[in-house]
Amino acid sequence: MSFDIANNVALQQVLATMEVERKRIAGTQTKGYIFIAAGILLCVLGFFLGFPIPGVIGGLIPLIYGGVLLFKINDSLTAYQNAYKTNVIGAALKFLDESLSINPYQGIEASEFMYTQLFSNEPDRYKTEDLVTGCADKTRFYFAEVHAEYKTVTQTKDGTRTEWHDIFRGIIFAADFNKKFNGVTIVRPKDFGAAFGAWFSKNLFSFGSNDVIQLENLDFDKTFVTYGSDQVESRYILTPAMMERILNLNHQTKYNISLSFIESRMYIAFPLNRNYFEAPVFKSLLSPETVNEDISTLKFMYDIVKELDLNTRIWGKE
Amino acid sequence: MIIALVIIGFIFLIGIFFYNSLIGKKNQVTNAFSAIDVMLKKRFDLIPNLVEVVKQYTTYEQGTLTKIVELRSKAGSPNISNAEKADLDAQLSSSVKGLMVNIENYPDLKANTNFINLQTTWTESEEQIAAARRTYNASVTDYNNSIMMFPGSLFAGMLNFQPIAVLETTAEERKNISAKELFNN
Q: Does A236 contact B121 at a Cβ distance shorter than 8 Å?
């Protein structure tokens, strides 16, 4: 099933109406930027040619006008971006499955982000938006964009310098898992630090309550490090078939994913390097690739349930 | 003199560390086996209920039911070895699988809530036993590696630690599922 934008009359009408608004916003923004640039140019020219005061006065007028133009269009821009999320992304979601909906102002709370145990750093700055919720057959799921950062403060000659570092930027996906379990199982990408940590806790000393789980799928063990509070339960979740499915899912993404299984729910973190579901301003809405990328992301998220076979409910959990 | 003492002390400490780690791994193997045992018991406990429910609806499956009850009582007797228990479980599992296929012919039974519950619990227990067996094999591999690799091999030789065999997948598990076989029953 593919979402054919070109032949979807209702969506084409929405896009055409929004395209008019987009052009108006893009036009005003371009005008604003041109006035600001002209103002700066006038100031600089005035200084160079020996007329600083007329230069500044002459420059300030277009500068302020440009600023006012950008300020005034900002409300329309926000409205346009929200309309894109609700009408375009919302329509695409309804096409995939009637139960799906998007809420641009909601997301996954910072407390839930920490609860997933996917990341060990506590965020100092946390942003989340675009919560999509729904069901794929029997499986309830939701996902949202998350940007979590921590800060480091270093002493320099002139005082202190604060730097922000990403803990995670991308999409967190949560779904109701098809088996019952009580403990915690965490699957993280195997980089050097994780590999060394796993070796240390397996052979020398284990911190915390979770053990390293050595799984028999070699590819899986090369790609991920698995921790769990109960060896048998982690293997009950990560069956040979499930490990293959997770590997397949991981092959489809650019960056390695992390997964956690907590209280009958599974979380997957997909690191991404761009902001999704944002309406374009300087690119036409009517060109198919603009909307297609967002739609294929939505479809990818929706298909996870199928990909991981979460609708097979034969293990005593409805 | 002092240096020699320090070296001896250091070797002694390393010795204690490896010895303890071997014992820990050996205990882990025992522990992993008891997990399989618990899961097996849980599954054996399902049998009486399953037999009761099936009995009410079918008249032709008596042979299979009697066999299942016999296997269960054998598996429940106190003085059988772990290997025997695993073997009985494999036979039991294949008999129940056969029974489940035949039950396709009894629509009333298939729709019975009790039966549906038992069926899901049974599948759940199959997967749990598989997980417990895999855990056991992982602990055995870990233990075998440490007694065969240097310097663990030195202690293992002195203390007479023997490698333990991993649980083989049963013939039933290895066999490819053939649709023809399933439907020609």
A: no
Say if the Cβ atoms of B35 and A232 lie within 8 Å. Answer: yes
Q: Which residue of A has its CA nearest to B25?
A: A203
Sheet-wide strand order for A224-228: A101-103, A125-136, A139-156, A159-176, A265-271, A258-262, A184-189, A224-228, A211-212
Interfacial residues of A (vs B; Cβ cutoff 8 Å): 179, 203, 213-216, 231-233, 235-236, 239, 314-316
Residues B82-131: tens digit of each pLDDT? 778 878 888 888 888 888 888 888 888 888 888 888 888 888 888 888 88
Q: Which of A64-78, A178-192, A257-271, B94-108 has the lowest mean pLDDT?
A: B94-108
Q: ipTM greater than 0.85, yes or no?
A: no
Cβ of B132 within 8 Å of Cβ of A232? The answer is yes
Percent of chain A residues past pLDDT 90, beyond the cut: 39
Task: State pTM to two decimals.
Answer: 0.80
Spatial neighbors of B129 by CB under 8 A, at least 6 apart, are B36, B39, B40, B43, B89
Min distance A92 CA to chain B CA atoms (Å): 36
End-to-end CA distance of chain A: 26
A139 bridge partner residues: A136
Report the amino acid identity of residue B62: Q
Closest residue of A to B136, CA-based?
A: A232
Please return the burial class of A232, using the count of CB atoms within 10 Å of its CB with bins 0-12, 13-18 and 19+: buried
8-state DSSP, B41 = H
Q: How many CB atoms lie within 10 A of CB A29?
A: 18
Contacts of B137 in chain A (CB under 8 A): 216
User: B28 CA to chain A: closest CA distance, Å?
Assistant: 11
pLDDT in tens, A72-87: 888 889 999 888 988 8
* Total residue count of chain A as it appears in this document: 318
Give the burial class of A95: count Cβ atoms within 10 A of its Cβ; 0-12 exposed, 13-18 middle, 19 or more buried.
buried
Question: Could you tell me if A6 and A15 are in contact, meaning their C-beta atoms sit under 8 angstroms apart?
Answer: no
The CA-atom distances, in angstroms, between B132 and each of A190, A294, B34, B77 are 25, 42, 9, 22
CA–CA gap between residue A298 and residue A101 (Å, rounded): 11
